[in-house]
């Protein structure tokens, strides 16, 4: 062996020792570095917002209308740079679903059409909680659902607290308006009291007038009765007077005729007797006239007494009429004040009642429930995986395949110096090395697949996909380790461990890769282990086929590149080995 070759081998061994010493540090140090700056890790996780909310008009207590767009307010708060939790991007339903399926976003927040209507319903008789939905996909990161739940709960609490504050402010404003209305009602009640006093006074005056009026009516009635009694014989008296005056007139005429006849014939003896008879009749009539005069006087006295009593009753009626009118006016005024006060009381109570948001216990309880929790969050997980065994298998199986390839390379090592210096072709030597390692890799893959389906709860209907993908991953990792062994010998295994530490740090699956500090998210698509994890996760979760296809392309590319570079490395090793033998033969 030449001195330069010997020195180069010593340097490689020293580097291998240093690498072996750094392996534990690499595993811990890389993880610490990747998770540095965790306080803003959530802010780097991309998420989509779909705002389907529609504008509503809210009627204020003063009757004016105010437009409400609660969804826009929520979007504005979430997309504000100062808001913690997810990197929110505003989009539509279709683009959001595509981005979620492709893993471009890890959650989709949807604001429904009736969001504003539900928010404003808190002031109505039928309060309703506003609902928003948050959707994650386990096919890209298992912990995204839990993270989305935590972020969503915090978001809902913050926004709901603001809504509750506004509601409480409205309640206090309503209490103030209620106080004003009750003050108005109190003024109305005072008016009622004043009107009641006036009505009472008017009623007293009205009662006095009515009593005087009643007394006058009684006396007038008595006078009228006496007047009626006194005048009941007036028709007969009138007939008697007429007959009396007629009889007297006839007697007087007869007497005049008899006297004239006697004067004409004084010697006639019948005239004295006739004149005496007429005189006797006049005497009788005179006696009747006195009786008639007495009756007439009595009737006239009764008539005068009844008229006098009626006049007294009429005067009492007139005297009672003034208090009656005054009492009636006072009563009317009091009743007017009562009506005005009652209207003010009714207006005040009606206004106060309008300020009270709930009219019964059920409505009050519903309003309290909604006010305490005005916004609810519904979190759904597409392709949900809740079995811990499947979650562990997503990362454990690719890791086990990498370690299996590492162990196979450690056991098989490079071809022996005898084979390297033999006449066997390089292609054949490479094929032999790859064949033995591939056989071990396929056995490892089969065992892991059986373990997944029997112990991790993976359905047997996924066996073709899990077996094919696991076998491809095992072959790709094995080819890469054969390359490392051919190119660097046992030092390549140290490189494998260092690469494993780097890959584990940059691998997603459990959590979004965006939570890692730079430059690890950028390294994720360049490393084989993250591709294997992404593909197996999509298979186990039943997600879109695109991650599986992308992983297969990356693994096939790694395997083919490893074979090509392995052939180059094997030729170089054989050439170096041949150069070592030349001095021995020459010596």
TrEMBL record:
| Superkingdom of origin organism | Bacteria
Q: List the keywords (alphabetical).
A: Membrane, Transmembrane, Transmembrane helix
TM segment ranges: 391-412, 433-453, 465-486, 493-513, 548-570
Domain ABC-2 type transporter transmembrane, by residue range, is 21-164, 367-567
Where is composition skewed (Low complexity) in this entry? 358-370
* Record Gene3D superfamilies: abc type-2 transporter like domain
Q: How does it sit in the membrane?
A: Multi-pass membrane protein
- Provide one Gene Ontology cellular component: membrane
The reply to whether Translocase figures as a keyword in the UniProt entry is: no
Molecular function, one GO term: ABC-type transporter activity
Q: Where is this region: Disordered?
A: 351-370
Subcellular location per the Swiss-Prot or TrEMBL entry? Membrane
Protein's UniProt keywords contain Membrane: yes
Concerning PANTHER family, the annotation shows: PHAGE INFECTION PROTEIN, TRANSPORT PERMEASE YVFS-RELATED
What protein does this entry describe? Putative membrane protein
User: Which organism encodes this protein?
Assistant: Diaminobutyricimonas aerilata
